[in-house]
Write a structure and sequence with these properties.
By secondary structure, this protein is of the alpha/beta class. It has one domain: Rossmann fold. The protein contains seven helices and five strands. Strands 2-3-1-4-5 form a five-stranded parallel β-sheet, sandwiched between helices. Strand 4 (113-117), helix 6 (134-150) and strand 5 form a beta-alpha-beta unit. Helix 2 (33-43) packs across helix 3 (54-72). Residues 5-166 form the NadR/Ttd14 AAA domain. It holds the Pfam family AAA_28.
Length: 177
């Protein structure tokens, strides 16, 4: 889907801040499935949490990402996703060996331009929903840095600069400026 653009990369790399800047510029955005899942699970004493049952968490993230894609299809123009289906499928395949990445990655395409925020230790902060440390975030980033190109996506790594300039760069890469 050419109008679906993924912002992925390292936890704490500025994805959510960049997504918010794009939203403020009038673009439709979809918040990260993982954060929504963790919030719901914590509020309801659930166990599909990355630090309790990572496989259940990844499966739920896939389900939510599929629903997000379906809902986003109703929006005209570009829709920016904070992570999503490919990230969840990558995690599931890494954990279980199931061919989730290839299966979901081939059937559910996004815009060929993927933006991977690099590790940025100076701004990395854990919180209620993000409890893993920076080394785990970097390992995930390295896995995603290999997985997206394996699905023929063109990855772009935004430099560690102010969010407005980062947003300009994303829009320019997409031909929207």
């Amino acid at each position: 889907m050419d109008g679906f653009v993924i912002l992925s990369g390292c936890s704490g790399g500025g994805k959510s801040t960049l997504l918010e800047a794009l939203r403020l510029r009038g673009h439709h955005v979809v918040e990260e499935p993982g954060r929504r899942i963790v919030g719901q699970e914590l509020d309801n004493s659930g166990s599909a949490l990355p630090w309790v049952d990572l496989t259940a968490f990844a499966r739920r993230a896939i389900d939510i990402s599929l629903c997000d894609r379906e809902a986003a299809a109703a929006h005209p123009g570009i829709v920016f996703f904070d992570r999503g289906l490919i990230d969840a499928a990558s995690a599931l395949e890494h954990l279980t060996g199931e061919p989730a990445l290839t299966s979901y990655g081939q059937r559910h395409r996004y815009n060929r331009h993927i933006f991977l925020t690099p590790p940025w230790p100076e701004i990395y902060v854990g919180d209620r929903e993000c409890r893993h440390d920076l080394s785990e975030a970097i390992a995930e980033y390295e896995r995603l840095s290999a997985d997206y190109p394996s699905l023929s996506y063109e990855t772009h790594i935004p430099p560690k600069i102010g969010v407005e300039t980062r947003a300009d760069l994303v829009l320019s890469t997409l031909g929207l400026r």
